[in-house]
Amino acid sequence: MRYGTFLLAFIGSAVFSVAPALSEQVLSVETVQIEPQTALETLSLTGAIVARDEVGLSFPMGGRIMTILVREGDHVQRDQELARLESVQQEQAMRGAEAALNAAQADLFQAKEEFERQDVFLQRGATTRIRRDESERRFRIAEASVEQAQADLNRARKAYEDTFLRASADGTVTARLADPGEVIAGAHPVLKLALGAAMDAVFDTPEDMPTRIPKNLTIPLSLIDNPEVRFQGHIRKVSPLVDPQRGTIQVSVGVDMPPAQVSYSAAVRASIAIPRPDQIIVPYSALSASGHSAAVWVVNPGTMRASLKPVGIARYSDGLIMIQDGLKTGDIVVTSGAQLLYPGRVVRLIGEK
């Protein structure tokens, strides 16, 4: 029993005596000395391809749509018929106006002949001035009737033509906003037509992002459903208004020479690399924690002892951390071996004796 007690006491005293010696061992660590440098902030945005110049096409009058002759993506030419309203009443009115004009023209022809005959008879003394003047009055009335009938026909033809929706210029149909059988009001958009071949990639960005992107920056673009299709563009327009519901700003990127695979409404991704000078960057392996805050181990070059220093993080990148505050130029930060550190432990930089 005495021998066992003596043995335990001996082992305990040996452990106690060795622990301080181990705690004083110098730990070899890898470090990096802080020097501000230029970093690239990579932004990824998702948007859609739209036509730069787009117009809405509508009927000037209301009615029921009888047919729509085009689909999204169709190329159309100027004055090509695109859609039609039910036009039975307008067509009947036009036919009636044509008949009224023909009757007025026939009355005019007869009144003209009578006037000319009475004028000749008056010169020969074979009629009276009253009869000649009466024939002239009927002739002038017939002329006015023809003019009125022609105006009525022009209005009826215009009303009939208004039941046909035609392309205002050469372009591409980008959207159908109504369907056959639908009753619409006048000036209600039925189709959207893209004019020309110019395209924009439109993105909804965070409120502060447009101010961080240089205006002359070339922006790489790619199709989401076909990432191999790559092209580029430049910022063309930034909306001055903030979307009140989402808190975003719309940015339009003009597409430079869009490939044939790029079509309207296609989903597109923009990858923007913005250079940020004077950034304090450390490897992700340097990151530790102090309570609920991020921290890094900093080595005092005079004593070579490590201390845990809280830091503020601006953002993360691939394998790197951008430090917002807590470090300064010249600080020595431990990047490997930090898991074995504790405040005040003496370290040696790998490669030093």
Topology (elements, then pairings):
Blueprint (H helix, E strand, L loop, with lengths): L1 H22 L3 E7 L3 E15 L2 E5 L4 E6 L6 E2 L4 E5 L2 H37 L4 H33 L2 E3 L4 E6 L6 E2 L4 E7 L3 E8 L2 H4 L6 E5 L6 E9 L9 E9 L10 E17 L4 E3 L2 E7 L6 E5 L1 E6 L2 E6 L6 E5 L10 E3 L4
Parallel strand pairs: 1-22
Antiparallel strand pairs: 1-21, 2-11, 2-15, 3-10, 4-6, 4-9, 5-8, 6-7, 8-10, 11-14, 12-13, 12-15, 13-14, 15-20, 16-17, 17-18, 17-21, 19-20
Briefly summarize what is shown.
With 353 residues, this protein is α+β, with helices and mostly antiparallel strands. The protein is built from four helices and 22 strands. 27% of the residues lie in helices and 40% in strands.
CATH class of the largest domain: Mainly Beta
The fraction of residues in strands falls at 35-45%
| Strand-pairing-aware structural class | alpha+beta
Give the SSE order as H and E letters. HEEEEEEHHEEEEEHEEEEEEEEEEE
In which range does the helix fraction lie? 25-40%
Choose one word for the global shape.
rod-shaped
Q: How many helices?
A: 4
Segments where pLDDT lies below 50 for 5+ residues?
1-23
Domains (count): 4
CATH topology of the largest domain: Elongation Factor Tu (Ef-tu), domain 3
Residue-averaged pLDDT, rounded? 86
CATH architecture group name of the largest domain: Beta Barrel
What's the number of extended β-strand segments? Answer: 22
Cα-atom radius of gyration: 43 Å
**Alpha carbon gap, first and last residue:** 49 Å
Give me the CATH superfamily of the largest domain: Efflux pump adaptor protein, beta barrel domain
**Main pleated sheet:** 6 strands, mixed
